[in-house]
Amino acid sequence: MSKIERAQAGVVEYKLDQAVGGSGVAAVDLIVVELTDSDGASGLGFSYVLGGGGDLALRAAEAQLARFIRGQTLAPPRAQWKKIAQSFNRTGLGPNLIGLAAVDVACWDLHARRMNVPLGVAMGGQIRPTPVYGSGGFNVVQSASDAASVAEAQALRGLGAVKPRVAGIKKDADVLSAVRKAVGERTQVMADANEKCDLASAQWLMALARDQGLLFVEEPLPANALNGYRMLRNTGVAIATGEHLQGLRDFTGLISEGVVSVVQPDLAMIGGLTPSLDLAITAEAFDASVSPHFLPGLFAHLAAASSAVRWLEEFPLLEPLFEGWPEISKDGTMSASEAPGHGLALTAKARGMLRV
């Protein structure tokens, strides 16, 4: 069996031209892990800290490489993930899990490259087209007409749904009405509150969403507000959440109680592709759907592995740092890359910014 001869962790400190999304992200620290085995096969993994400040996650990834990866023969990715994660019992999740996400993606990429198959196939699936919804371009401070213009442009590209930003305030009614009018009845409308509501304003927002026929409302409350979510689940509108939850266990109560209909794992927060796949399998058992947090070109491989993945989110953020992202088809769907592994590579510019 081949051993890992080279295992390197680094960071790209990526500054955006302007703040984006409902959370106003203006910088990202991209955690990069690269593996090479004694047969010459390689794997590229990545994670991130939105807003910057990724040094702790970088140190965690490097510690994991030193203890569990470098110079060793790797177990299959899921077993390798569990081996590393079990070491967090004294230090907790936090940056450990964010660092593990980068290591895990690298292990899966290497595993699939060794098999000479796309990542989604290595995960046990079959590549399939998956609907994409438009999320980029919206923010909570834009006018109703600006939100409508963004939504109309996304609908004209063939995207099957759009997701403007809301906040449980009076302006939301104008925004959602304008967006619905702009995209017509053939395009689904969602809404993302980015945890900005209290329970009273969340209840008002859910009633508005019901009247507007929204597919789901994302994060009407903070992710850990389990009792509040219990009170919202019978409002007649599906609830989505998950991008701020760490680890699979944070999702299980929401799913098993039927509190949420859509779970949204974030690659970094959940700890990589392995727990994302476990979450998708859990969602299948409870008839919930999965719509991962941005990175559609990577999560298209998860869609290949699980039928629970119903939507991919187009929110351009890390895409300029990589080559090899799959295109969105004219029918508004995306299929995973057919290249071995995940099919992604750092751009020359990103590699030049990489601090090892």
Q: What does it look like?
A:
The chain is 39% helix and 20% strand. The chain has 2 domains: 4-116 and 347-353, 2-Layer Sandwich (Enolase-like, domain 1); 122-334, TIM Barrel (Alpha-Beta Barrel). The protein has 356 residues and is α/β, with parallel strands linked by helices. The model has no long low-confidence stretch (mean pLDDT 96). The chain has 13 helices and 15 strands. The strands form 4 sheets. Strands 4, 5, 6, 12 and 14 form a 5-stranded mixed sheet that branches. It has a 5-stranded parallel sheet with strand order 7-8-9-10-11, with helices on one face. Helix 1 packs across helix 3, helix 5 (144-156) runs parallel beside helix 6 and helix 6 packs parallel to helix 7 (199-212).
Record the SSE blueprint:
Elements: E1 4-20, E2 25-37, E3 42-50, H1 55-69, H2 77-85, H3 94-115, H4 119-122, E4 130-134, H5 144-156, E5 161-162, H6 171-183, E6 188-189, E7 191-192, H7 199-212, E8 216-218, H8 226-232, E9 238-241, H9 249-256, E10 262-263, H10 267-270, H11 273-285, E11 289-290, H12 296-305, E12 312-314, E13 322-323, E14 333-334, E15 345-346, H13 348-353
Parallel strand pairs: 4-5, 4-12, 5-6, 7-8, 8-9, 9-10, 10-11
Antiparallel strand pairs: 1-2, 2-3, 4-14, 13-15
Helix pairs in contact: 1-3, 2-3, 5-6, 6-7
